[in-house]
Design goal:
The complex is a heterodimer. Chain A is of the alpha/beta class. Chain A is built from 31 helices and 37 strands. Chain A is globular. Classes of the chains: A alpha/beta, B alpha/beta.
Chain lengths: ~900, ~425
């Protein structure tokens, strides 16, 4: 488009504006405020509210400023009597339908805004008052579990679904229109929950009249106060403004600042899934198992003193008699950095063991191993903000629209609005596969073959970056023959089931784009070859040089809000905080000195080894903080046996989980909204949060509990605030040295590595040099997954997350709205398979693997290819991990959740 | 009674739809205008059009030459030509007659238009009910393709053009140009904001030449016989032959071809005279103008509001209040509801008319109706609602006694009551 400018005059002020700008944007340049309702800067203007109408000299009538482009010599008048009269008439029509607004009205804020617009247009306050005319408006609340709409207040500006179309590429809501009758309908008349709505709720933010609102604002009224927080669900790390009504966090609004991760967006869990905090099932008092005879065990409430003394005594006994290595701490990706630091300090300084791990083990430990081996640093190489301007995104084994919805939004935005190319590598037809340029539906567990096949194409078609390989990498010479000899596309097609031409297309897209990003999830890591899969991804980036600059790199999507942080602060068996190694005597000395103890020297157990250790007697006491291995670790029967075998199991939790039922002592903890601390999200951003609410009854923060326990075991662990803990950690860890609590508290946006107090950290890693010097290629060979299908177990089961739920469901299943959206687990299977088994939707089926069997409803969908079935692990009633096997990646000891051979029968 | 002028558009024509007639009609159609046009330059054709003084026959009377020129001058290379045969205006049926009697004139005009503005694709958009016409057109288009008068390299003149026939949904609004584009694009037929005008950004945001069927039917005449010949017919500013759709309380309803010099009384006389006593006539549809007995001798020129040439005559057995109510109901059913003032105002006028009998005096109602009409003129997104609210105030102005009768008791004429 030609970049000529137009000379126009607005209210007598001459100015030059680009030829294609609208009158509205031109007036904005002058700071003239024209009221609008249907206009939204992100969306194509529709000009339907007619409130922004202005007068143009020489034209009859008024024109809408938002949708009318300027032309040379245009004379615009924005304040004439005619314009004001029009504004008054329009606002009168809007306010007339608005009804009375009391202090509990969900649209209070929008009403105030409309009134101030009306006053600015010259409508007397008395007239505005008179329009309210005691008419009661109604919100329809039965259409949807989470949203409510008032037909009277809707002005049909269509912003809600224009925004939905903008964000999601489709809109499930629609205006029904037939002569004279016109109404907003959701999902073609279906309730939203049955339609395709994600319930991200972002449409609500865009409603100018408060016609579309969150349902809780109708049932409970607007919030008493709002307070900032960091979302406690996935690893995206969205900033929230939690809306608290009568002490209950009923919902949240997104942080709209550009510096926030989410930039005005949220997903259904973040926006609607917070009221679990006040669920009646919440544990509020310590409980001790009362052993009555052989069979009947029950829990009784205890005081904190009794419970902690009991725990301290038990743990001391084991430590002193059997040695610290008989104890293990399973820390959590759900608690803050400070608390994870304390947990590992408790293990190392008080228990004298390196048996400390967190749930990164069962998800992204292979990322740490693989990326460290390839690049020298085990974290995402780019920040999330860089996704939207990437030219090509290769998404492997991840379903971000469900598991990391806000990252999903960013990918959608990149593809739909920034013309990014998208390659999706996933066995299932996930949502993003719809808008992908290429979708490679590989057979589950054949990642290495496929990624090697892509590398084969890159080399064969000379799409590799020779200068980059020569200057910044090593190992290519060894890798090349392996890939060239063993992975020509015919072989790869045979192994993976993906047509050769598609593999070729994907390789060309990835290498051909200016900046390509690999984004991967647990589909890469939760395999027995998880670490190798990660290295195979890294190989692609190294071969094409698509790394080490903005918008190009390799990014794992970390699953939980603080799983990155838990690893960073040392809740791992093999490294000290800040990934410092035990073979670095200087580092070890520093910690010994600070903690006043000699550090344990034995190799620590990884979480899955702890479970096996518990079974074999190698571990006698376990302290589990906010984890539920019975439901989330593979082979639940084995986990149950192991936990039952422990002398002392302490579980620190919000709710009575399946793991808690095996505990000797249950300690009630405060949740993230009730404490202060920091979380580190998937792109290494360290974010500070303050308590939004007071913890209920006797719940104490994890920090408080751990310190108390340590003191009762004779170690002086005293901290007044998370600030002291963080600063001790920063002092001891070079990569976090510059990140000081005062800076986080002041709202600085810091990422690690941040080695001085002046810098804000490296958002993009490996820019000039890899952390390990040169990037390392790994020659990898494909080996089939541990389990394969046979006549008895003909289906491949793969597991993952649902949009509405999270982890073991402890939180999401305690929130009304989310449970209303997705109330029970259903195994997904292809219609072809369903027909063979003569199943219809919602039929009960029995799913069996070599380890056990479960009953579950089925859901027939083409999201799964024939032969593959999918389940989530959120529901204790359908515990999919009874089926999964305890086969582990040898390097990271991460279980293979993604491939289990199962049989399905109607039951 | 004046003699009826010589017909040109309908000269010697009869419906070609009847079986067996169509092939004959096709084989004998001369395409003189097209052949002549292909020897002219596009600029020459536009000059001819400008000289003819032809104005759009759909109601808005925009000079055809200017419209063609504007499309031709656009920078964007992809352009479209559309024949608007939606004809949803109540009482209008001239396009149907033209398409039934001389469809090839429309196609020939589209070919000339495509040659002039360098379009490669055209659409004939028809009213939902014109199914038979659509079939005839499809048949003709097929023959034309077979004879290389359509498709690629037409008549070896290195120009390509294709025409598709589409029938609309039964919606009044889809006759509005921009709504028609949306309908063709497969979207809800809703008007878009102007500017940009269709000549700049029309169908699929490309420059689009959209003309009424009658306007297009005039084109071959102009090209064949010259613009000057066309300009002589009729009066200053209202050149050329015009079809009038006569209906209502007259003896013979139907289409009459005349010049725009003809007065309303002439037209009524040619149609066999009024049944009963003439009370008034609605010209150019319910959104058009009201003609009263004192206007009977006014010529129906463009300046006097002949619009699309629809004349609905009503006699003294009709109640103006009933008429106003019908017209209000019609637009209430047909408004698109897209823009806020349109939607709200249409609801309000509907309530006003429904509650007519509850009023004690007419003045406040009349004032409010007028106010809403003025507001819509100023700010509504398209012209539908503003033109739809123009007739009722005019009726109130002209026949207050009819409305007053409703205020007091049961209306003796139409039977309406509170």
């Amino acid at each position: 488009m030609s970049q000529t400018t137009c000379q126009i005059t607005i209210d007598g002020n001459a100015l030059a504006v680009p030829a294609d700008s609208s009158i509205l944007s031109a007036t904005a340049q002058l700071g003239i405020d024209i009221p609008t309702l249907c206009f939204d800067s992100l969306l194509t203007p529709e000009g339907v509210c007619r409130l922004c109408c202005v007068e143009i000299d020489g034209m009859h009538g008024l024109v809408s400023a938002c949708s009318t482009p300027v032309h040379d010599g245009m004379q615009v008048r924005t304040t004439t009597a005619k314009v004001r009269e029009n504004q008054r008439l329009i606002l009168e029509m809007v306010l007339q339908n608005f009804g009375t607004v009391d202090s509990n009205d969900p649209a209070k804020a929008q009403y105030a805004r409309l009134c101030s617009m009306a006053q600015a247009a010259g409508m007397p306050a008395a007239d505005i008052q008179a329009l309210a005319n005691n008419k009661k408006v109604h919100y329809l609340t039965h259409h949807d579990p989470l949203l409510a709409i008032s037909a009277e207040r809707c002005i049909q500006c269509t912003r809600c679904f224009r925004y939905c179309e903008y964000l999601h590429g489709f809109h499930p809501s629609e205006i029904l229109d037939s002569g004279g009758v016109r109404e907003l309908s959701f999902a073609m008349g279906m309730p939203l929950a049955e339609g395709q709505c994600d319930h991200c709720g972002n449409c609500v933010e865009h409603c100018p009249t408060g016609a579309l609102v969150e349902k809780w604002t109708v049932t409970h009224g607007p919030a008493d106060y709002e307070a900032p927080a960091i979302c406690g669900y996935c690893g995206t790390g969205c900033s929230l403004q939690v809306q608290v009504k009568n002490g209950v966090p009923l919902g949240a609004h997104p942080d709209v600042a550009d510096s926030s991760v989410n930039q005005g967006q949220l997903c259904v869990k973040g926006r609607f899934g917070l009221d679990y905090v006040n669920h009646p099932d919440r544990l509020t008092k310590p409980m001790i198992r009362e052993r009555q005879g052989r069979t009947l065990d029950c829990f009784r409430e205890a005081s904190w003193d009794e419970a902690l003394d009991f725990v301290a005594e038990e743990f001391r006994q084991i430590r002193d008699h059997d040695g610290g290595d008989k104890l293990a701490v399973l820390s959590s990706a759900r608690v803050s950095n400070e608390e994870n630091y304390l947990a590992q300090k408790l293990a190392r300084a008080v228990f004298h063991t390196n048996n400390i791990d967190n749930c990164a083990r069962i998800c992204h430990a292979p990322s740490v191993v693989g990326l460290t081996a390839a690049f020298g640093s085990g974290a995402a190489t780019n920040s999330l903000d860089e996704i939207e301007d990437a030219d090509c995104i290769m998404l492997i084994g991840a379903n971000p629209t469900e598991a990391h919805p806000v990252i999903g939004h960013k990918i959608k935005h990149a593809v739909l609005h920034n013309k990014a190319r998208l390659v999706v590598i996933d066995p299932r037809n996930i949502w993003l596969a719809r808008i992908a340029d290429v979708h490679l539906p590989l057979r589950a567990g054949t990642n290495i073959a496929l990624l090697n096949g892509i590398l084969h194409v890159l080399i064969e078609e000379n799409l590799i970056n020779d200068t980059f390989i020569a200057a910044r990498t090593r190992g290519f010479v060894e890798t090349k023959p392996r890939v060239m000899d063993g992975y020509d596309l015919a072989q790869v097609q045979a192994i993976t089931g993906v047509p050769a031409e598609q593999i070729r297309a994907a390789a060309r897209l990835y290498a051909g784009a200016k900046n390509s990003m690999i984004i991967y999830g647990l589909g890469i890591t939760q395999h027995i070859h998880g670490s190798s899969n990660v290295m195979a991804c890294a190989n692609l980036a190294l071969a094409t040089g698509q790394i080490g600059r903005k918008h190009a790199g390799v990014c794992p999507l970390r699953g939980q809000n603080n799983v990155q942080g838990a690893c960073d602060v040392g809740a791992l068996p093999n490294v000290l905080p800040g990934y410092q190694k035990f073979d670095d005597p200087e580092a070890v000395a520093r910690f010994s000195e600070k903690w006043h103890v000699a550090l344990p020297t034995s190799t620590g157990l990884k979480s899955c080894q702890m479970i096996h250790g518990a079974k074999s007697g190698q571990v006698k006491g376990m302290y589990i903080i906010a984890e539920d291995p019975v439901q989330t670790d593979p082979d639940s029967h084995l986990v149950e046996q192991a936990l039952g075998n422990l002398d002392c199991l302490v579980v620190q939790e919000l709710f009575f989980t399946r793991t808690a039922s095996f505990a000797d002592v249950i300690l009630p903890a405060a949740c993230a909204l009730e404490k202060e601390g920091t979380f580190t999200n998937t792109d290494r951003r360290i974010q500070h949060f303050m308590p939004v609410l007071a913890a209920p009854e006797e719940c104490r923060t994890d920090m408080d509990i751990i310190c108390d326990l340590a003191r009762r075991m004779g170690y002086a662990m005293r901290y007044d605030s998370p600030a002291e803990i963080w600063d001790e950690l920063a002092e001891l860890s070079p990569i976090l040295y510059g990140v000081r609590y005062a800076r986080l508290y002041a709202g600085e946006k810091l990422v690690w590595p941040c080695k001085t107090k002046q810098e804000t950290g490296q958002r993009t890693l490996h820019e000039n040099e890899f952390t390990c010097g040169k990037g390392v290629f790994h020659a990898l060979d494909y080996a089939p997954p541990e389990e394969s299908t046979d006549d008895t177990y003909p289906f491949l089961l793969t597991t993952g997350r649902r949009l509405e739920h999270y982890c073991n469901g402890a939180m999401t299943r305690k929130t009304q709205g989310l449970l209303g959206l997705y109330s029970h687990e259903r195994i997904e299977l292809n219609p072809v398979d369903a027909e063979k088994l003569s199943l219809t939707d919602e039929d009960w089926v029995q799913v069996s693997s070599r380890r056990g069997q479960i009953r579950v409803n089925c859901h027939i969908t083409t999201r799964c290819p024939p032969g593959t079935v999918f389940m989530s692990f959120h529901f204790a009633e359908a515990p999919v991990n009874i089926l999964t096997g305890s086969y582990y990646d040898p390097l990271a000891i991460t279980p293979e959740y993604k491939v289990t051979a199962v049989s399905i029968t109607k039951s | 009674m004046k003699p009826l002028p010589t017909p040109f558009l309908l000269a010697g024509r009869k419906a070609v739809i009847e079986a067996g007639q169509l092939r004959d009609y096709y084989l004998h159609y001369p395409f003189h205008a097209l052949q002549k046009a292909l020897h002219l330059s596009p600029a020459g054709i536009i000059a001819e059009l400008k000289a003819s003084g032809l104005r759009g026959r759909g109601g808005a009377a925009f000079p055809a030459g200017l419209k063609w020129e504007s499309v031709m001058q656009q920078a964007e290379p992809v352009r479209y030509v559309i024949a608007n045969g939606e004809e949803g205006e109540p009482g209008t049926f001239k396009d149907r007659i033209l398409l039934e009697q001389n469809p090839l004139a429309v196609i020939e005009a589209m070919l000339i238009a495509a040659y002039t503005v360098k379009a490669r694709e055209g659409f004939i958009y028809l009213n939902h009910s014109y199914r038979q016409i659509a079939q005839v057109l499809e048949q003709l288009l097929q023959w034309l393709c077979e004879d290389h008068r359509l498709g690629s390299n037409i008549l070896d003149r290195q120009f390509d053009f294709d025409i598709q026939v589409r029938r609309g949904r039964q919606r009044y609004i889809s006759g509005e140009e921009t709504a028609l584009f949306r309908a063709l694009e497969g979207r809800r037929a809703e008007p878009s904001s102007r500017p940009p005008y269709p000549t700049e950004k029309g169908l699929w945001n490309k420059p689009t030449l959209i003309n009424n069927i009658e306007t297009l039917s005039c084109i071959p005449l102009i090209i064949e016989k010259s613009g000057a010949w066309f300009a002589v017919i009729g009066s200053e500013g209202s050149h050329g032959p015009k079809l009038f759709c006569m209906s209502g309380d007259i003896k013979n309803s139907g289409v009459i071809e005349a010049t725009m010099e003809a007065s309303l009384s002439d037209l009524i006389a040619w149609a066999g005279g009024t049944l009963g006593t003439f009370k008034g006539a609605i010209v150019s549809g319910p959104s058009g103008r009201l003609f009263l007995p004192q206007d009977l001798n006014k010529p129906l020129t463009i300046q006097n509001g002949c619009g699309n040439g629809t004349v609905v005559v009503f006699n003294d057995t009709r109640c103006a209040a009933d008429l106003a109510r019908h017209i209000t109901d019609f637009f209430f059913a047909e408004y698109c509801g897209q823009c806020l003032p349109g939607r709200e105002a249409m609801k309000q006028v509907k309530v006003l008319m429904d509650n007519l009998e509850r009023n004690t005096t007419l003045a406040p109602l009349q004032k409010r109706y007028g106010e809403l009409h003025t507001m819509l003129l100023n700010n509504s997104k398209c012209g539908l609602c503003s033109s739809g609210t123009s007739m009722a105030p005019a009726l109130m102005q002209a026949f207050p006694e009819d409305f007053n009768r409703h205020l007091q008791s049961e209306c003796a004429v139409c039977g309406g009551r509170a």
